[in-house]
Amino acid sequence: LQILVFYFFSEAIYGLLTNIVWGKEKVDLLANPSFKQLMQSSLFKVSTINLVRLVSYVGLLSGFVLVTTNSNLSIETFGEIWAIILLVTNLPKIFYIMKLSRNLISFQIPWKSIGKYILASAIMSISIILFNSILEYDPSAIKFAPQLALVIIISMVIYFGILISIDKDTKQLVKDGFEF
C-alpha cells in the first residue's frame, strides 16, 4: 500500500506536467494540420509515451504472473511486487514529461514544501497506526463512531500542528483564517 502512495503521487505530477505540455501545444489550433505536424506535436508524444508505458506494464505484469503461477507467494508479496512493477513502469513516463515540460516553460518543483507535507503526513500516519491499536471495532456505529472520531481528530490536530510549526505558508493561512 505504501508503494502505491508514490505511484499516485507520480500520477498527480504527471497530470500537472501533461497540462503544461498540452497547454503550450498549438497544432490543434490550426485549421487543417498535416499528418506530419500532428505526429510531431506534443499531443502525440505524450499519448505515445503513455501507450508505451501501458504496454511495458502489461508485459512485465504478465511475465511476472506467468513465472509465479505455481509459486507459493503470499497475496501480500504478490501485491507488493505488482505495486513495484506499476511504479517502476511509471517512472520513465514521469521523467520524459518533466523534460518535455521544462523545455517549454521554466519552472521549479517546490521539493522543500512537498517534503514538509510528506513529513507531516508520515508523522500523522504513525499516530494513526498507534491509535489504531487502541481502537476497538464494534459493529454498533453508536459505540464505534466516537472512538473513530477521536482518532481522526487527534490525527488532524497532529497533522496541522506539525504543518503550522514547519511551514510558513500554512502558518500564514491559519493566521489569515482567524483574522477573517
Concise account of the structure shown:
With 180 residues, the protein is mostly helical.
Looking at this protein, list some descriptive labels:
180 residues
Describe this protein's structure.
This protein has 180 residues and is an all-alpha fold. The protein is built from seven helices and no strands. The chain has helices at residues 2-24, 35-40, 42-68, 75-104, 111-134, 141-166, 168-179. Helix 5 (111-134) runs antiparallel to helix 6 (141-166) and helix 6 (141-166) packs across helix 7 (168-179). The longest helix has 30 residues, at 75-104. The protein is flat. The model has no long low-confidence stretch (mean pLDDT 85).
Order of helices and strands: HHHHHHH
Rg, Å, rounded: 23 Å
What quaternary form is this? single chain
Note the overall shape.
flat
Strand content: under 5%
The percent of residues in helical segments reads: over 70%
- How confident overall, as mean pLDDT? 85
Q: Write down how many β-strands occur, each being a DSSP E stretch of 2 or more residues.
A: 0
Give the helix/strand class.
mainly alpha
Major sheet characteristics: none
Note the gap between the termini. Answer: 39 Å
**Annotation field: number of helices:** 7
Instruction: Identify low-pLDDT runs.
Output: none
Sequence-ordered SSE layout with sheet pairings:
Elements (H helix, E strand, L loop, with lengths): L1 H23 L10 H6 L1 H27 L6 H30 L6 H24 L6 H26 L1 H12 L1
